[in-house]
Specification:
373 residues, alpha/beta, 6-stranded parallel sheet, globular
């Protein structure tokens, strides 16, 4: 009996070693019909003045190389987020040198790899993020930058499967770890704001939603928000209303996508010992002068929050659990609604329309004529 068990263990160990060796030493794979070149959006320099976009060009460039541990993805869809617009303007997270690729996330199908364990992801439909290259027909990313899509999730939903969903999950997690029980959300009618409202409701983490217009309030109410939890920043007694709402639900943290005067107003409305996490700059303005008495006497705090910085801090297990949660909720509580479709050649035409009004104006860019893969 003992000999049989030992023999079985030896055989199992041998099979595992062979399999592991094959996976580790697996050679790179690229399809035979892979084109030599691809179409991509590139930025050659920042904008001139305070309006418009930078020097953007749609070009035909060589197909990128695929290092070991990396995946070659045929890009199907990519969204336009505020961070992409800032990058296209040349005002946010600029490349070390020009020209540079553009676009931080998207979705597609893995059609090749650089060898190693990543071969297990071949032909999988994935959501991915990159440092700036998703507005292209193909992209190369490290394997840890992808999330495999569930069968019910379309490429369009998967395209917004990283930046906004993980920002929502990450900010709520950060707030809870800091002991907060509820939050204020600015720009609440944006794609991320709507997602935050639905996710907070599911998680039992109340959100006070701040919007500018009555139609935005009606939109959020139609999506499940409690009417009294949606505050208009254009009302004369806005700060008073927001302060009362914070006390009613116990909100002691704000998630601010706007910056500028918005940060100051929200900080003033929050109760003592509250925090504000500035995670966006939709106003294109610095945080306006804050009364030192809010910081000294009321012990309020202003902090920045950025997805990449958050990712750099948390453990691999935390990243994995976060990815699994996003995968489960993608297309549900963490869904994205698109109102415009564009091709890579149309980006420079449609983005200015998004800049004029981001509410219900979300753009998805299709990199290939067909989405069937």
């Amino acid at each position: 009996m003992v000999k049989s068990v030992v023999y079985a263990l030896v055989v199992a160990a041998g099979v595992a070693a062979v399999l592991y060796n094959q996976l580790i030493n697996n050679k790179a794979y690229l399809p035979d019909d892979l084109p030599k070149t691809m179409k991509a959006l590139r930025i050659y320099g920042p904008r001139v003045g305070n309006k418009g976009l930078g020097d953007l060009r749609v070009e035909t460039i060589p197909m990128p190389e695929v290092p070991k541990g990396h995946l070659l993805i045929k890009v199907m869809s990519a969204p336009v987020n505020p961070s992409d617009v800032y990058f296209m303007q040349g005002t946010y997270s600029q490349p070390a040198s020009y020209p540079s690729g553009v676009g931080f996330e998207g979705s597609g199908v893995v059609i090749g790899h650089g060898g190693g364990l990543v071969q297990l992801l071949l032909r999988q439909r994935v959501s991915f993020f990159t440092s700036g290259a998703s507005y292209a027909e193909y992209v190369v990313v490290p394997f840890e930058n992808v999330v495999v899509l569930s069968s019910h999730v379309s490429y369009d939903q998967g395209a917004s499967g990283v930046v906004n969903p993980m920002t929502v999950v990450g900010m709520v997690s950060t707030a809870r770890w800091a002991g907060h029980k509820a939050a204020v959300s600015t720009a609440a009618a944006s794609s991320l704001g709507k997602m935050l409202m639905k996710y907070g409701k599911m998680e039992g983490f109340p959100i006070i939603n701040v919007v500018r217009r009555e139609e935005q309030r009606e939109l959020l109410v139609s999506l499940g928000a409690i009417r009294e939890d949606v505050i208009l920043s254009t009302d004369k007694n806005y700060i008073e209303q927001l302060s009362e709402a914070c006390l009613r639900v116990g909100a002691t943290v704000a998630l601010d996508a706007i910056s500028g005067q918005s940060s100051v107003d929200v900080l003033q409305a929050l109760p003592p010992k509250s925090e504000i996490y500035v995670y966006g700059a939709l106003s294109n303005e610095p945080v306006a002068p804050i009364s030192p008495f809010l910081l000294m006497m009321e012990e309020k705090t202003v902090k920045g929050w950025h997805l990449k910085k958050y990712f750099d801090r948390i453990s691999f297990i935390s990243k994995f659990m976060m990815a699994m949660k996003v995968k489960e909720l993608l297309g549900k509580e963490l869904s994205t609604e698109y109102n415009m479709e564009a091709s890579i050649d149309d980006i420079m035409t449609v983005v200015p329309k998004y800049m004029e009004n981001a509410t219900n104006n979300k753009i998805v860019v299709h990199m290939h004529a067909t989405q069937n893969e």
